[in-house]
Design a protein that fits this description.
The protein is mostly helical. It has helices at 5-26, 32-52, 57-83, 89-115. The protein is 83% helix and 0% strand.
Length: 117
């Protein structure tokens, strides 16, 4: 994965999400929203990995589309946690910066792939 930046960034993001959800469970005693965040945040990388290993261009494009939707869903859960005063502004900004960088990469790949199809 070292030479595939989107795979590496999605894995790094998933690991941050796992740590954040552990923190939310252990420190904030927040279980429901953290589970939603865990699912959406780790599924980004799952779909990126599926896209990279896709057997057809259509599947590649579709999986990157799903990865993008999961990144947008993750944004929603992070906003709920922030506006619900479960995450501080600093905590939210930190992970949102990483999420935004990842969604920009995924969106660019998805858009370029769709245009050249």
């Amino acid at each position: 994965m070292d030479n595939n930046i989107v795979l590496q960034k999605s894995l790094d993001f998933a690991l941050r999400i796992v740590k954040l959800c552990h923190y939310l469970n252990e420190t904030k005693r927040e279980f429901v929203l953290s589970k939603e965040l865990l699912i959406s945040g780790t599924n980004i990388g799952k779909h990126v990995k599926a896209a990279v290993g896709a057997e057809s261009r259509e599947v590649f494009i579709s999986e990157f589309g799903v990865a993008r939707r999961r990144a947008l869903e993750t944004e929603y859960w992070l906003l709920v946690l922030f506006h619900g005063e479960i995450l501080t502004e600093t905590e939210h900004r930190s992970i949102e910066t990483d999420r935004l960088e990842l969604v920009k990469i995924i969106s660019a790949i998805h858009s370029t792939s769709r245009r050249s199809n």
